[in-house]
Amino acid sequence: MAQLREALELLDLYEWLGQYTDLKEAGGDEYRIQDCPECANSKWKLYVNVEKGRWICYVCEWGRGLGDTVRLMAAISGRTPFSVRMELMALVVPSVAPSGYDQALQAAFGETIAEVSKEEDIPDVELPGYDTFTGITTREVLDYALMRGLTEQDVKDYQLRAATKLRLTKYTGKPVEIDGPFLVFPVYCYGRAVSWQGRKTIKSDIPYVSHSRVKNWLWPLGPQFFQRYVGSKLLLVEGVFDALGFLRLGIPALCTFGKSMSDAQLELLRELYVEEIVFAWDTDAYKEMSNAVGRVAHVFPRTSVIDFSVGVTGKVDAGDTLAKPELGPWLLERMNAAMDVHSTEFFQWQMTRA
Q1: CA distance 138 to 182
Q2: Cα–Cα distance between 54 and 185 in angstroms, integer?
Q3: 343-to-233, 282, 336, 352 alpha-carbon distances in Å
Q4: CATH code of the domain made up of 4-109
């Protein structure tokens, strides 16, 4: 994804903010803004250091400890954080004609979004299957998606596809074809397909088949996520349906495609300027989660874990809330009770699973 740090270094924050509000000198690189978007105080108590990209309101203290300059830019401009990030991407990526995905973003936000193009080191992939569901088999795939709690609008928004077969690339030997049918979840970057994962619609020993580079990405890095993400806390989940479950509840969640974290995925999290990571992986994957938590907590000290074994009978995933919305309050309660990985509570929880 776009190198936001590089873009922010290139940005003249004073000039950018000046498009949307008046600024008064406060000494050095600091300026005052009359109206605070957080508390609505209008007595010039919002101070911004345009060189460091830091700010604070001396009435409500909005900005203290916050590190995402995009949050300030979005609040002052009245725009979405996603559209601001898209504009920043254009500072470090040359422009081309907008793709259908870019046009969809423009329609979604009702504004002109800066065009972004590909980075040369990100290869395109050919998406398997079909983007329509008019055939007998593809209609079965759509029925499966609806049975899992997705809507036809979800299918359209996430650009899901149907495939009768998928090719599984092994570490050795030739790729093998796995019979489906599959519901295919494309992974996009800059509006270009960079990977995919397929979910078989019938019970199978191999329920998921993925592109070989799927672990380089998180899903979905599109408007459905950025409309909810404000640069502070996000959840990491194992699967695509889990991400969809939290996103429907208004919670920013990204799928890691399994029970591990790659270096590429960690770098993506760095680019998002995350302040707090919450692991919402299945608790039966304790060993894998423990390993991943250790890696992530080293980079993001504010890391916590959700225990999904409380308050329900049997195994329940975040994705189950799509078809059973009555589970939504329980899921939110579990999220609010997440354990800080540096706390005594988490240590004691670990001991019960050692």
Answers
A1: 9
A2: 38
A3: 18, 20, 15, 15
A4: 3.90.580.10
Amino acid identity for residue 125 in this structure:
V
Q: Distance between CA atoms of 197 and 34, rounded to whole angstroms?
A: 48
**Within 194-275, where are the H helices?**
223-226, 240-248, 263-271
Cβ neighbours, 10 Å, residue 155: 19
Region for residue 273 given its phi and psi (left: phi exceeds 0; alpha: psi -120 to 50; beta: otherwise) = left
Residues in the chain: 354
Give, in order, the Cα–Cα distances in Å from 151 to each of 132, 145, 148, 280, 312.
15, 8, 9, 23, 26
Query: Which pLDDT tens digit goes with each residue over 204-223?
Result: 888 999 998 899 999 998 88
Give the pLDDT confidence of 180-189 residue by residue, as tens digits.
Answer: 999 999 998 7
DSSP structural state of residue 226: H
The CA-atom distances, in angstroms, between 339 and each of 93, 261, 277, 343 are 39, 20, 11, 7
What torsion, rounded to 10 degrees, do the Cα atoms 11, 17, 18, 22 define? -150
DSSP output for 127-164 = PPSBS---SHHHHHHHHHHHHTT--HHHHHHTT-EEEE
Residues of the chain with pLDDT below 70 are 1-4, 82, 89-90, 92-122, 170-173, 190, 231, 285, 354
Which homologous superfamily is 136-216 in?
DNA primase, catalytic core, N-terminal domain (3.90.980.10)
Domain boundaries, the chain: 4-109, 136-216, 223-351
Phi first, then psi, for residue 45 (nearest 5°) are -95, 0
Rounded CA-CA distance 67/69 in Å is 6
Contact 163, 130 (CB under 8 A): yes
What is the residue-wise DSSP string for 73-93?
HHHHHT--HHHHHHHHHHHHS
Reported as type and span, the H/E element at residue 261 is none
- Please state which CATH number belongs to domain 223-351: 3.40.1360.10
